[in-house]
Amino acid sequence: MKTKYIIAIHFSLLMAAMSCSEKKTEENSTESNYCISKELKKDLKLAKVEMRSVEESITLTGEVESNSDKTVPYVSLVDGVVTETYFSLGDYVRKGQVLATVKSVSLNEMQDDTQTLQAQLAVAKRKLASVESMYKDDIASQKDLQEAKAEVEILQSNISKTKKNMQLYSAGKGNLQIKSPADGYVIEKNVSNGMPVTAGGEQLFTISNLDKVWVMANVYATNMRHVYVNQPVVVKTLAYPDESFVGKIDAISQVFNENERVLKAKIIMDNNNMKLRPGMSADIVLPINSQDKTALAIPVKALIFDNNQSYVIVHKSDCLLEIRTVTEVSTNSQYTYVEGNLKPGENIIASNALLIYENLKNQSNNSTN
């Protein structure tokens, strides 16, 4: 009888402990059988909870520029008028591809000079043959022979030079063919049909290879102490708000820009996917003040704030989701550091989290009513 009484007490205590444990869990977690719809499933992004060192960051503004080491500006070699253009701003062109033609009086003069020189050469050769004959008969001196030979050589040299110039200009019948000096994209165009151009004048177009681009960050005096060469950075753009581009600072100018009153930090970025375009504005995120403290790290967009409390949604399956209460420790542009009922490795909703949270709340309220 005593044994049965002891077993009954132990069973009651066990049930009470389980009840308390369940209540405690319920205070920090809400489970639901709500299923994510097909529409939300298309854009659903999950992220794993990580244990990371707490890091702060600063964000600098900047702009994407072409790599000047692989940028080629073109100016006209002659005076003339543009008759045709075969490219547009942003086109990809190959080295040697004809981009435009220019009608030039200078080329006509060059062609006339070639014909004149060839006629003079024919006369000089006949003169040389006559002098050589007279030299053999001791009528002409060696000096006369050398002068005749020198005249022929000079004319041949001038003709060769003129022909090379004509080939350089890809000229024919007074027209100059402007050819692309390199492979790349046309990032600047200042030429159109009927436009007059001058030798050595303004740039007609600029071609740049965009496999690598420069991101120029603006470093104000207040941030100078946080910025250094080889510092890792994350670049974000308005065009691709959900994507981050990783790089590092390659160089920092030593003189403040007169107009903007900033130092310029250059970041060389791989651009194989062609998502970074010259002229695009960018935000450059730099990590600072790494701490010895570690905390659970989640993407910034995964955090939900409602009624003075922060939450995340744990994803076990599309039909098994849990709302967990968390407390913010710190945040930067990439991560929010939290404490709470989460474990490293758990999957949480990292896109449309607020919408899914509202759906879960509505379902919970409907089931209660």
Write the layout of secondary structure elements.
Elements: H1 2-28, E1 29-32, H2 38-42, E2 46-48, E3 50-53, E4 56-66, E5 71-74, E6 80-85, E7 92-93, E8 98-103, H3 105-136, H4 142-168, E9 175-179, E10 184-189, E11 196-197, E12 205-208, E13 212-219, E14 232-236, E15 245-252, E16 263-270, E17 281-288, E18 294-299, E19 304-306, E20 309-317, E21 320-331, E22 335-340, E23 347-349, H5 353-368
Antiparallel strand pairs: 1-21, 2-23, 3-18, 4-13, 4-17, 5-12, 6-8, 6-11, 7-10, 8-9, 10-12, 13-16, 14-15, 14-17, 15-16, 18-22, 19-20, 20-21, 21-22
Helix pairs in contact: 3-4
Structural description of this entry:
By secondary structure, the chain is of the alpha+beta class. It is 29% helix and 36% strand. It is built from five helices and 23 strands. The strands form five sheets. Strands 1, 3, 18, 19, 20, 21 and 22 form a seven-stranded antiparallel sheet that branches. A hairpin with a 2-residue loop joins strand 19 and strand 20. Helix 3 packs antiparallel against helix 4. The two termini are 47 Å apart. The N terminus is likely disordered.
Question: Nutshell version of this structure?
Answer:
The chain has 369 residues and is of the alpha+beta class.
